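Structural prep section.
Before we set up the soaks we want a predicted structure of the protein with dinuclear copper ion in place, mainly to decide which crystallisation condition to try first. Input record follows.
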Amino acid sequence: MNSITNFLSHFFVTGDPMIYGADVSIVLVTLAIFFVLTYFKKWKWLWQEWLTTTDHKKIGIMYIIAALLMFFRGGVDALMMRTQLALPGMTFLNSDHYNQVFTTHGTIMIIFAAMPFIFGLMNIAVPLQIGARDVAFPFLNAVSFWLFFAGAMLFNLSFVIGGSPDAGWSAYAPYAGTELNPGVGENYYLLAVQISGIGSLATGINFLVTILKMRAPGMTLFKMPMFSWSILITSVIMIFAFPAFTVALALMTVDRIFGGHFFTIASGGSPMLWANLFWFWGHPEVYIVLLPVFGIFSEVIATFAHKTLFGYAIMVWSMVAISLLSFITWLHHFFTMGNTAPVNAFFSISTMLIAIPTGVKIFNWLFTLNKGRIHFTTPMLWALAFIPNFTIGGVTGVMLAMAPADYQYHNSAFLVAHFHSTLIAGTVFGIFCGLHYWWPKMFGYLLDEKRGKWAFWVFMISFNICFMPMYFLGLMGQTRRMYTYPAGLGWGPVNFVITIGAFGMGVGFVIMAYNIIWSALHGKRDTTGDPWDGRTLEWSIPSPAAEYNFATIPTVSTRDAFEAMKEDKRAGKEKAPAAYKPIHMPNNSAIPVVMSAFMFIAGFGFVFWWFWMAIPGVIGVIGCMIARSFVYNDAHLIPVEEIERTERAAGRLS
Amino acid sequence: MAESLLSLNPKKRKDLPLEYSTEEGDLKIVGFWVFLAAELVLFGTLFGSYLVLQSHTAGGPSAHELFKIGPVMIETVVLLVSSFTCGLSTLELRRHNVKGLIGWLVVTVLLGLVFIGFEGNEFFTYAAHEGATLQTSAFLSGFFILLGTHGAHVSLGIVWIAGILIQLARRGITPVTARKAFIVGLYWHFLDVVWIFIFTAVYLTGWVM
Amino acid sequence: MMKTIRAKAAVILLPLLALLTGCSDKIVVMNPQGPVARSQYHLIVWSLIMMSLVLAIVLIIFIYVLVRFGRRKSKGFDPNDTGNRKLEVIWLIVPVVICILLAVPTVKTLYALDQAPKATAAAPSAVHGKTLTIDVTSVQWKWLFRYPGQNIETVNYVVIPSGVPVRFNLHAYDAMNAFWVPELGGQQYTMTDMPMKLWLQADKPGNYQGRSSNFSGTGFAHMTFTVQARSASDFNTWVNNVKSSKPALTHDTYMNLLKPNTVKPQTYSSYPPIVAKDLNKAQMNAYMNGQPTGNDAMHGMNMDNSGKGGK
Amino acid sequence: MQENENQPIRQEHAGFPWKQVIGLLLSLALTFLALWIAVGLSLPVNVTIAIIVALAIFQAFIQLFMFMHVTEGTEPVHQLISILFGIYVAFAVVAGTIWILYAQMG
Ligand code: HEA
Ligand code: HEA
Ligand code: CUA
Ligand SMILES: [Cu+2]
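Run finished without errors. Recording the tokens verbatim:
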């Protein structure tokens, strides 16, 4: 009996009212979901329409819902940290709790919010932009989503079962090793991030092949919309960065779970090797979450300036340059780890070089606006605000790149300010921009402009209130990851302002959430499929798009293909639509969900060193792969009559 | 004829071998190449880690003391020959000869099993007789994980080829089975490439140092 | 819209200017008190100037295009304006030039910081050409300072002679930390498997705040220390005082210091031999169990303590 | 998607499998050459390592071109660029890691 209570009190995180609250709300929400689904008899619908789907548009929507939830969780973490830091000597969170919170905040925001949000947008937009009916490997696409989902669930479970990781999102050895960190928290980090990382690698391969091989006839690479280009390049970075991370995580897992000595203090392990491997992935990772939003901004700025993108070719080449450079700068994250001068010099310069292609893009956007007819819609506001705010983050990055100066900034609040300026003014502004822009294509109605603009202004101004003072805080000597600080150093007032800004961002986010709900009820219907006077193919089809996307695959002859079609139409040169043919579409499949459930079981087993649980999980995963290999009948045919019916309902066929 | 999932001009495909004849086959082969390119980085990372830890023996046995030339050369030759027989199986695939294809794949699998047997024996000898395990030192962690990852890939390859053999026996050579047989061949050759580097970076440098 | 942007520009740029003058001593990084911090400060100011320039260019163009083309009925709309080779070359070349202007002093400073700083010209001739070596060990969550020349040990504070370059040999007992005294110069990590060096020097006597800047667990936020710079003669007096009036660091006290906790500043007139071995936690455990520590040739990377790393 | 089943297939591979046999003999020869250089000769360590690494790279290319048909497909440029990028990144991680972790100050 005693041993059982002992076990339970370690299994469930105890002693903290906030966590009991979380326990209760998780149980309540789960029960509520079960109840609603059962009451409205929606189980079958959920299973058939969503959980087993291989339709890229639905997978995209599931990614975005999950990412928004994770953004909320990461945001709550941020507000908890900011509350604790608002005044010197606060006791809202104790040290251990604070350490868990910044770790989960960073990990969740980057891996379980920013990346899946981007995956969601690319799932929705890329096939539509290139005139494809789905991605190259729809089944694999579903697997990717469910692996991400399993990873995210596993990671969040750590909050209530076993305890959260507390070594930062970069999980530096030896602190993250078992000698100094014996609990299960770091195991959660390793397994959860690993599982979703495998999904990310698969997504990269999937979209690379999709974009290379499945473009509409006539759409050469250099006629492709810029967002698709950005995803092509991002996919390449993902494909080549993630394997390194897979290995790094696996090696630390071996250390922690099987007693290996890669990064340990004992037996010749090299803690610095972890830092090296982590950042070999970690630096490219920041471009993985940045380049896609560069693509989004390119679309949105061109659309609402009513101009073609300025300097298309050089925009592409600058992304290619970034992808090449991003793999040779990683050491700038540990300039102060005892490197010799030649090493630091090399990586200082390689890092600075990235400013050049990035600057090219900034100026090309500015000159797209030049001589344009600028329309200040909500997506456009996010895109415009990105330019000055991100430039601040970028140029402070260049300051960090100067190694001797970095000796003074490293691990200070200056660094924290830098990366929020890039991650928020870049990535977050970008995904909010894309969310508003493609929302009508996803759901068939627009998000409200007035409420959207309110959310924008509140969030953007608060962002500046929050992160501009943080640069000074760094120069005043405050380091990151401190749960508290004494009075008398002059940090208090600055921190207080920062906290006000953070809550302001929360208000902005709440307004945005409110706007989503309000617009679902009262939003303007998009009946044309082209609410923004768009330029690319996704706007040529009805909103929301039919299962098969394009009733007939368009033929492309120029950039901005849809704009050209509209011009042809105005000039009366519209081509007669081709006759419909039956369409092959991939079948639904339960294997991805089931496989990810096994993955979750395996992950959970490893977290607790319970091999009796982990091994069946692994066997289940392999079983799913074998089962899939024997499925030969994985596509169905949509007959012409059904296509006609659908198109007629969308008003495309009289 | 049904309009298919993708719209790429299928004309070029006509003069290519059977496995490229469907769009699906075409996509999967390219996708697999990309996957192999990613695997290059995966193994690269393992190699980099191994090489910096190579001298971190922490008082345990060193590479020089541990590695025996005989078994390693047998492993190497067996794997090289299996890559060759795998190449012959692809050749038979191109000739539309199911029997030849199945035959050479069976030989390949058998050689793979021999390889795994020798490797397992090597690991076992180190652990049982020299007390050298993954937990002994950073060097040995690196060694066992680098070679173990390769060995796990080979084992997976064996299971995979076995699955394809069943499908080939049942269905003969179709665009789908042809694609599968071709892709597993790529995988097998790739593992041979990795072994060449293991042989060089682990064993040869171990003997040199 | 325009107004907020202009207001924002002012909000951002004015404090930057204020910083350049180094007006507040709370902004420690901008208040250098030694040659190392000063060379970094010069680099920072130079980069701030260049970055303000870049930012200004971007903001000016940004504001111009929004004002000019953001109105309902602006003239000059030209949908065919899709590229301009000459402009594109300009914004390729200018950043390249800026990068060169930043890279050259960066590399120069890097190489300079590898060496001991030049002794301050104003320093009394007594300390000319002299350097001091202090071995620093980070332990969860405290700093141990060992004076191998003087054979004394302090905890959570360190006394140095001003005007003399001090070579800190950094080492970690358990978790990685980083040794940072912003007013004297930038930081350097402490690691378990290799000694690292950091040269610092204080211009004049004074107290400077130091802290760990790399997260190392529960007590990390309290892992602070003071650097007390004294004139050369005061420093000697202090050393003699310590030697005559402070207790010796016993083996047991030392083992207690190695436990993860936070402690008050302490001073010891001598230390037991084990301290000088720079064992890390694993080696210490082995040593206590009577096994070889392997520290005579730093296991792994074959680092020696003389400052020449690698093979 | 079964409609393509009867498409013409090039029968270029008739006859003795020269390519494969030469590939095998070359890789065996290179392997034993490397072994002899490493164990049999006693060149300076750096030289030995440079030579055996070069031999390994050469042998990898043999596999790539003789056995793996890397230049085949509808658009072989895709897989060629992928492999090249993979080699670039793999080189970066191996060389960078060694450089960074061996060239450290004390
Ligand atoms: C989306 C995320 C993102 C982006 C885009 C960037 C972009 C850049 N980052 Fe940042 N960075 C992070 C996220 C990001 N970073 C994170 C998360 C960390 C910390 C992780 C951690 O420790 O937890 C970090 C840390 C970090 C460091 C480590 C500092 C330290 O730990 O001490 C460095 C150092 O060099 C750096 C540099 C740069 C540079 C040079 C760029 C460049 O790409 C910026 C280029 C852009 C511009 C320069 C602006 C536009 C250009 C012009 C207008 C042209 C003219 C300009 C010039 C010629 C200068 N970053
Ligand atoms: C995409 C990535 C991303 C994003 C979007 C954010 C967003 C935010 N971050 Fe994050 N942050 C990181 C990535 C990110 N961060 C990383 C990688 C680290 C390093 C972690 C580490 O050290 O390991 C970090 C660390 C970090 C720290 C440093 C902690 C430390 O070192 O001690 C701080 C401190 O202020 C901070 C603050 C914030 C704030 C205020 C936001 C805000 O933008 C959040 C705004 C969003 C919301 C607030 C939404 C929630 C809404 C509600 C909760 C509604 C209710 C609220 C009200 C009604 C007010 N972050
Ligand atoms: Cu770290 Cu040598
Ligand atoms: Cu970086």
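Observations: Residues 73-106 of chain D form one domain.
Flagged for discussion at group meeting.
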